[in-house]
Specification:
By secondary structure, this protein is an alpha+beta fold. It has one domain. It is built from seven helices and eleven strands. Strands 1, 2, 6, 7, 8, 9, 10 and 11 form an eight-stranded antiparallel β-sheet that branches. A three-stranded antiparallel β-sheet has the order 3-4-5, with no helix packed on it. A hairpin with a 3-residue loop joins strand 3 and strand 4 (100-102). It starts with 33 loop residues before the first strand and ends in a 7-residue tail after the last strand. Mean pLDDT is 89; it is low at 1-10.
């Protein structure tokens, strides 16, 4: 993978891709999950076109920074792509053919089954992480991902690591929370996805905000200029039995921000 330093050269098409509002209530406690209603796990929202243009740019210019496909992940990635394509039939504005998808913004994406996660990343607005549990292992491991919009973490550092290690250095993610999350991953069933949401105050609106776990964490309070929330869905793929963790990111301007 490319070094972290190369990510700084990414020039976003817009540093402010803002939603008008967060479309759900925030759950404050971890893991704070609830069932996904009516299988509605893939969302398309008001910022689809702008976010997808930025995703296209990141995948084209910083592929190794936003994409990871570990050994043994290809089949799960292909199953995820097939699952996404099936869900698009329920969405307005998509046209799906044998070899292409036309998005609501008019962009045509070729279906590459050898790069299924990159293909998903150019069709769906969310990021997707694939986690699989090796035989006899106590935890699920991150085996693949398309992650264009990280919030203070880097894919290169988390690739191939188990759940507990992935969450370093999140202070709230202690051993007790780690065991609860692992039980969720063990127990989630196909066709019964669950979701939760987080809340994050940010000094910048940019969706692509990687940070090394070795760097000091930036702390923002309720007077920060921007509010960011991730709708995180956990679902199991029926054939490979891999767990998919999807991250749909919303950013709004904070009306209570303190002016400089």
């Amino acid at each position: 993978m490319n070094g972290v330093a190369s990510w700084a050269s990414v020039r976003p098409m817009s540093t402010e891709i803002l939603h008008s509002a967060i479309p759900y209530d925030i759950r404050h406690s971890l893991p704070g999950t609830q069932p996904v209603q009516d299988g509605d796990w893939l969302w398309v929202d008001e910022c689809y076109g702008a976010q997808m243009a930025y995703r296209d740019q990141l995948i084209a210019e910083r592929f190794d920074a936003v994409h990871y496909m570990g050994v043994g992940c290809l089949a799960a990635g292909q199953e995820l792509l097939s699952t996404v394509l099936g869900n698009l039939q329920k969405q307005n504005g998509f046209s799906v053919s044998e070899g292409h998808v036309q998005r609501p913004d008019g962009v045509v994406v070729a279906l590459d089954w050898n790069q299924p996660l990159a293909t998903v990343g150019r069709i769906a607005q969310a990021d997707y992480c694939i986690l699989q549990k090796p035989e006899g292992a106590p935890e699920h491991v991150l085996t693949g991902a398309i992650l264009c919009f990280p919030s203070s973490w880097t894919l290169a550092e988390k690739a191939g690591r188990p759940l507990m290690s992935i969450h370093i250095p999140v202070p709230e993610y202690d051993e007790n929370i780690g065991k609860r999350v692992q039980r969720l991953f063990d127990g989630v069933q196909p066709d019964r996805p669950i979701w939760r949401a987080n809340q994050l105050w940010h000094g910048f609106a940019n969706l692509h905000q990687p940070k090394s776990e070795r760097d000091p964490r930036r702390s923002y309070g309720p007077d920060a200029p921007f509010f960011r929330s991730e709708r995180q869905v956990i679902m199991r793929l029926p054939e490979t039995r891999a767990v998919v963790f999807s991250i749909h990111t919303f950013v709004t301007r904070n009306p209570n921000a303190v002016s400089a």
